Each structure stands twice: as structure tokens, then as C-alpha cells.
Amino acid sequence: MSHGEVRIENRARCHLPTLTTSRASTWLIGITLAAFQLTGCAKKSPPPPPKPPEVVVAPVRQQDVPVFGEWVAQLNGPINAAIMPKVQGYLLSQDYVNGSLVRKGQLLFQIDSRPFQAALEQATAEVDRTEAALAKATNDVQRDTPLAGQKAIPQKQLDDDLANQEWATAELQAKKAARQQAVLNLGWTKVYSPVSGVAGIANSQVGDLVGPSIKMTTVSQVDPIWAYFNISESLYLTYAPQISRVLESGAITTPVPVEFIQANDVPYAFRGRVVFVNREIAAGTGTIQLAAAFPNRQAILRPGGFGRVRVQTSTARNALLVPQAAVIEVQSQYQVIVVGPNDRASVRPVKVGDRVGTNWIITDGLKLGDRVVVEGIQKIQTLAAQSPQTANEGIPVIPKTYVTSAGNS
Fold it and tell me: What is the pLDDT of residues 42-91, one digit of tens each?
């Protein structure tokens, strides 16, 4: 072996060529780099799977629940009195505050009474003059009656005296009637409220010429106040026998309580009763109008206001209930996320019925004992979007028991 060569052992066995010192160095560097590359490209161990999300689940409950119907209603007073003066004259004063509560018999307006006072005085004078004429005619009859019997005066004179007496009697009655009308006209210069209620804005101002054709304001009776609503003909026919029995008994109200939901979705404090059923079904809508009366002593409800009336229509026997928060609505279709015995969550379509408080009646898709997700729905939807295969098999979850506001699970 010469001085410039390095012998590699087992050359024949490994089939390695004889290398010089420089070539051997290059080869060793290449081996080292390759080892680093192989080490860097080695496959890393997969990370541990994420922890299943925690969700709150509620069991499907079964119980008898009342079923309610709701209809849009508009408020109005049972009496809306249009205030129109009975005499014509100039308005002197408005004696109430616009929009305030007024009592029956309370003074609302005063009309200039001076012309009517003068008319009364004139009518009184006419009565006095006619009474004097009647007294004269009566005296003539009393004086001439014996004279005519003695043939001292012509019979015609007595006949004239009697005719004058009858005319004066009739004239006195007419004058007294005119005086009574003058008294009424004078009294009508003060306009009083015919009912207790809320008085509206005055349409006439002080100084205006008002008369019987002028509506000065409106007073609406508001205690009780009526809520008018319309139900379908089919629903009316369902309860028509009960309604007929109430009407035949002479009762003014039905025994069914009615709840009024105000425009701000706050239930009104007092319950009402149905007091009115219209005589006919509207041909254009196929509905019939009803009205429910509600106590309204503080005039919280005002005519013209809108809301909803809520009436119990039936009772659902053995209804399946889930919290409303568990129901997902997608394009008018309803779904819930059910957690199985293996604590895997999957989406299930359901059919829903009426809402009952914070719960929803489920008519199809669930059975007693199923568990539905109430809180954590978004977590499950996110995992399902990331891994559709896992979603088909069911997404593992850690369920926790749902507790209602009342403390019942």
C-alpha cells in the first residue's frame, strides 16, 4: 500500500472503492449531512387529540301542559263619547287638561251664556204677560156668565170670553215651554262629561264659534277597557256550544280568563274576560270578532293601543318538553343536538308544537329519556364543520346537567 492511500477494512465485503484521504473526508461529510437531513425529516409523533367539549344537557320531560292561543288585539273603550255642544256660541273656556282623566259630570267647556240668559229673561216675560191675559180672560168669563144667563148681554159676548180664555190657556202653555227651552239652552252653555274616562285633545279653541255640528273632543271610558281580537271561524265553531250556553244563561262574561300582552311584551297585571262576540263572521277574512274586558283603574292601557291576547285553548296530554334554548331553527326546519348513552352528540330533526313558558313541545323526533344540548351548541357545530366524519359518528362531549332558574334539573 502506497503512502497516499488509506485502506478501508472489509472492502470486498462492503464493496467499497479504495479512497484517498481527501475523498474519504468528503464522503464522511456527506454521510454526516445526510444523517442530519434524515433526522430533520423524520416523522414527528401526532399531538394528543383535543379534549371533548363540555356541554350542558337537559332530559326530555313529559307532562300535561296547557296550550294557549295568541291573537293580535287592539284596545278601545266600550264607550267613546263625542263631545258636541247642543247650542251655538263662542267658546269661553276649556276646563280640563288634554289627555287627563275626567269624572262623569265634570265641566269640560263653557260657552258664552249671555245671549241665552237674555233669551231666558224674554221667555219669562212672555210667560208673565200671557198669565195676565189669561187672568183677564178668566175674569171676563166669570163676570159675563151670569149676565148672559139673565139675557143682560148677548150670548156671543160670553162665547168670545170663553174663546179668549181657552186661547190664553194654550198660549200660556206654549210660553212656558219656550221658557223651559230657554232654561235648557242656558244650561247647555256648560258642557259636561257624560262618562268617566280619558278626555282627548280639544278640537276647539277659546274664541271659536262652536255648535251642534262641531265635535269638540272625545271622552273614552277606559275602566274597564276592551281588547278587540279576531279568531278563525273553525276555532269559533270548536267553542261555539260553550259560548251559546253562556249567552243563553244571560251571563255578561265568559269564565275563561284572558291575558293581555302589551306592546313591550310585558304581560298586563290583571286578567280579563271575554264580554263580546260579534253577530257575524267577516266574509273577507273568515274570522269573527271578540272582545275581552280588562280592569284599568289607573288608565295604563289606552284606546288605540296594540298588543296580544292569550287564551288557553286546550291541554296537551303527556307532552314532551325541551328548553327552547335547545331548539335550532334552520330555514323553517327545527333540529336538536342529542347526546347518546356513549356521550356522543349528533343532530336530530324534530317537529315542534307550541311554546309553553321557557319550554317547547316536541311532537316528533324525540322520546322520553333523550338528552338534548342546551348550552354549548356552537362548540359542537364548530367541531362538526372541522370533521364531518366525526360528526357522522357522533362528537364526543362531556355532558353536564342543566339546571333551570327555579333550581330543578
Answer: 556 666 666 888 899 999 999 998 888 889 999 999 999 999 999 999 99
Average the pLDDT over 225-254 and give the result: 82
pLDDT in tens, 317-355: 899 999 999 999 988 899 999 998 898 899 999 999 888
Q: How far apart are CA 265 and CA 260, in angstroms?
A: 9
Q: How far apart are CA 168 and CA 156, in angstroms?
A: 18
Nearest to 306 by CA among 351, 338, 265: 265
Rg of the chain taking only CA atoms, in angstroms: 49
Tell me the residue length of the chain. Answer: 409
Q: Which amino acid is at 137?
A: A
CA–chain centroid gap for 24, Å, is 96
- The pTM is what? 0.65
Cα gap 38→27, rounded to integer Å: 16
Q: Amino acid identity, residue 388? A: P
Sign for the pseudo-dihedral over CA of 119, 123, 128, 130 = positive
Q: Tell me the per-residue pLDDT of 353-373, one tens digit each, with 9 for 90 and over.
A: 888 888 989 999 999 989 999
Q: Is the peptide bond before 224 cis (omega within 30 degrees of 0)?
A: yes
The 3 state secondary structure assigned to 112-163 is: CCHHHHHHHHHHHHHHHHHHHHHHHHHHHHHHHHHHHHCCCCCHHHHHHHHH
C-alpha distance from residue 275 to each of 65, 109, 154, 168, 291 (Å):
26, 34, 76, 56, 6
